[in-house]
């Protein structure tokens, strides 16, 4: 068992802690409903880069402190408006993490949505590989009511992942849906009592972290890549990646442990 590690003090806008292969990332501006300002954005960027780059991390859990997962952009910290930019050059940003929509941490991220999940917060949630919610969670994209539209992928991601009519309803009206509606339409996979949310997310993460890490990462890559290619090519890619994983030591350890009636010890080799 690895000793828990923390790289961010509790007063910082993002708390980052690692234990037993699981990185827990907590958005930590509870008085502001974890709205996104420059400090929180940078903290989240740094945390996701650590998930990608650290070998001792196999899975991430992303959640929010207080009454919200994330209620979107902190509009008070952006006096020129949420669409302000430095001109055409801003379209071609070179930062390691731009808007969270295009960054790939390479490992599964479980979003544990508590309370308000709105605007940019909802868009962050949509980038997670697995998404669960507390019973008091609310999802919404209110940008259209403020004179603009979602800027971090929701108009693209949402209609591709749920029925178009519901996606359009949320995008064009700005109205919220509750956790049960999100579950019914497949935005989240589980709804649990608020006081059990983190325990459930951590249990899911630890379970996945206990599997062969290369197999998990390969399957995640396949799930992401196959969405944009024809099914025949996707099947060929799956066969190739399955053969590669079949050459690893972990792929031998799993069947051996099963035959010997013991828990497998996966090393990522």
Compact summary:
This protein has 269 residues and is α/β, with parallel strands linked by helices. It has helices spanning 38-53, 120-126, 154-161, 164-173, 179-184, 197-209, 213-225, 231-246, 249-259, and strands at residues 5-6, 14-19, 22-27, 59-64, 68-70, 109-113, 116-118, 130-134, 138-140, 177-178, 190-192.
> Biggest sheet, open or closed, and with what strands and sense?
7 strands, mixed
- In the CATH scheme, the class of the largest domain would be Alpha Beta
CATH fold name of the largest domain, please?
A: 2-enoyl-CoA Hydratase, Chain A, domain 1
Global morphology? globular
Helix content: 25-40%
**With helices defined by DSSP (H or I, 4 residues minimum), what is the helix count?**
9
Short key terms for the protein model shown above:
7-stranded mixed beta sheet, 9 helices, 16% strand, Lyase 2-enoyl-coa Hydratase, Chain  A, domain 2, 4-stranded mixed beta sheet, 2-enoyl-CoA Hydratase, Chain A, domain 1, 269 residues
Description:
By secondary structure, the protein is α/β, with parallel strands linked by helices. The chain has two domains: 5-209, 2-enoyl-CoA Hydratase, Chain A, domain 1 (Alpha-Beta Complex), CATH 3.90.226.10; 213-259, Lyase 2-enoyl-coa Hydratase, Chain  A, domain 2, CATH 1.10.12.10. The chain has helices spanning 38-53, 120-126, 154-161, 164-173, 179-184, 197-209, 213-225, 231-246, 249-259, and strands at residues 5-6, 14-19, 22-27, 59-64, 68-70, 109-113, 116-118, 130-134, 138-140, 177-178, 190-192. The strands form two sheets. The chain has a seven-stranded mixed β-sheet, sandwiched between helices. A hairpin with a 7-residue loop joins strand 1 and strand 2 (14-19). Helix 3 (154-161) packs antiparallel against helix 4 and helix 7 (213-225) runs antiparallel to helix 8 (231-246). It starts with a strand and ends in a 10-residue tail after the last helix.
């Amino acid at each position: 068992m690895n000793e828990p590690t923390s790289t961010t003090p509790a007063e910082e806008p993002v708390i980052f802690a690692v234990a037993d292969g699981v990185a827990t990332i907590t958005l930590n501006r509870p008085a502001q409903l974890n709205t996104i300002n420059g400090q929180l954005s940078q903290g989240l960027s740094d945390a996701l880069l650590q998930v990608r780059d650290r070998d001792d991390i196999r899975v991430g859990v992303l959640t929010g402190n207080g009454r919200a997962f994330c209620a979107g952009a902190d509009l008070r910290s952006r006096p020129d408006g949420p669409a302000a930019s430095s001109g055409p050059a801003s379209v071609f940003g070179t930062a390691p993490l731009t808007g969270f929509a295009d960054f790939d941490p390479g490992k599964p991220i479980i979003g544990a949505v508590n309370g308000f999940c709105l605007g940019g917060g909802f868009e962050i949630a949509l980038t997670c590989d697995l998404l669960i919610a507390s019973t008091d969670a609310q999802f919404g994209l209110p940008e259209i009511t403020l004179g603009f539209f979602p800027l971090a992928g929701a108009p693209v991601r949402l209609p591709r992942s749920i029925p178009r009519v519901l996606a359009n309803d949320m995008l064009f009206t700005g109205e919220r849906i509750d956790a049960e509606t999100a579950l019914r339409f497949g935005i989240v996979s589980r709804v649990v009592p608020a006081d059990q949310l983190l325990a459930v997310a951590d249990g899911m993460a630890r379970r996945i972290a206990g599997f062969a890490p290369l197999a998990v990462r390969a399957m995640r890559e396949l799930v992401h890549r196959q969405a944009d290619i024809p099914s025949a090519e996707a099947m060929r890619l799956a066969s190739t990646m399955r053969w590669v994983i079949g050459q690893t030591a972990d792929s031998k350890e799993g069947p051996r442990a099963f035959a010997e009636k013991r828990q497998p010890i996966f090393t990522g080799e």
